[in-house]
Amino acid sequence: MPSNRNAFSSWRRRLVQRAVHAGWAWVQRTASVTAEHPGRLRFGAIGTGTRLAFPLGTVFGERWIHLGDHCIVGEQVTLTAGLMPDLDLGPDPILRLGDGVVLGRGSHVIADTTVTIGSDCYFGPYVYVTSTNHSYDDPHEPIGKQWPRMEPVEIGPGCWIGTGAVILPGARIGRNVVVAAGAVVRGAVPDHAVVAGAPARVVRRWDPAAGWQPPLRTPAPVPIPDGVTPEQLLALSGLDEEAVARLAELDLAAGEPAADVRAES
Predict the structure, then answer these.
(1) Which residues pair with 172 in a beta bridge?
(2) In angstroms, rounded to a whole number, what is the distance separating the alpha carbons of residues 17 and 164?
(3) How far apart are CA 148 and CA 44, in angstroms?
(4) pLDDT on residue 88
(5) What are the helix (H) ranges across the chain?
(6) Which of 44, 100, 175, 181 is the most interior residue, by most CB within 10 Å?
(7) Is residue 218 one of the residues assigned to a domain?
(8) What is the pTM of this model?
(9) How does pLDDT run across 60-100, given as a tens digit for each residue?
(10) Lowest mean pLDDT among 37-46, 122-131, 180-189, 228-237
(11) How far is it, in rounded angstroms, from Cα 125 to Cα 104?
(12) Which residues constitute the domain of residue 6?
């Protein structure tokens, strides 16, 4: 027979679990870093609406880190300027994030020399960006003891950087570029391109006359019609497939676009 003590223990465990989850959510909200509540961090600039999620990754050299408006920096993201803490890096910023940049959980941005990330760039989790590479010129000296090579990194606005991608020193990525998951990028990447592989190469590119080459294999997503409110979207999300099909039949009978009727429902 089941033990009453075990049943009580299970009930008590659920209460403790709920309390721990609620407490952790409170800690995450309270300990996140914003311009109004920077904690111990003193960034060179941190814009309106920007938030660094807790728990933080390694952050140092923040005086030379400039963060734009409405950026989201995920949990355990490392942001560093300089080879080590407490260095004087001069008057100019070393690491710049434009407005609306999203850095996914566990990503690293290591800026020993200039790293610039343009506005509206989105990083998946565990992306690694570095301006420094180890050198191995001297075959008799341990590689970790040899002075590294440094080259600036620039990522243009509007890029999407996939999970686990690595951006190496000297990379210059253009505007609205897709970097595939796991790609390893160095050198120049043109605007409006898709790159994949290690080392990364261009696998698709936008041509003003011919469009995407090679052509895309799936149709473009249909955007949400203008004027649709969040309340209407929530109402639509509660409809089952049969109700949606019925709305489509009514649209066809009335000779109106389906999206318009649903937007008004």
Answers:
(1) 154, 188
(2) 32
(3) 26
(4) 85
(5) 4-31, 230-237, 241-254, 258-264
(6) 100
(7) no
(8) 0.80
(9) 999 999 999 999 999 999 999 998 888 888 889 999 999 99
(10) 228-237
(11) 4
(12) 1-29
Tokens read off for 17: 């679990």
Q: What distances in angstroms separate CA 16 from CA 3, 22, 24, 195, one per listed residue?
A: 20, 10, 12, 48
Q: Are 58 and 102 contained in the same domain?
A: yes
DSSP-assigned letters across all residues of 198-231: TTTEEEEEEETTTEEESPPSSPPPPPPPTT--HH
Same domain, 76 and 196: yes
Which strands sit side by side in the sheet containing 128-130, from one edge to the other? Answer: 59-60, 78-81, 108-111, 128-130, 166-167, 184-185
Question: Cα separation of 225 and 262, whole Å?
Answer: 10
Distance CA 239, CA 55 (A): 38
Report the distance separating Cα 126 and Cα 108, nearest Å: 7
The reply to whether 221 falls in a domain is no
Q: Are residues 36 and 165 in the same domain?
A: yes
> What's the pLDDT score for residue 258?
45
> What is residue 133's DSSP assignment?
E
- Both 132 and 242 in one domain: the answer is no
Span 23-50, average pLDDT: 92
Residue 264 confidence (pLDDT) = 41
Share of the chain above pLDDT 70, in %: 86
Give dist(CA 159, CA 121) in Å, integer. 5
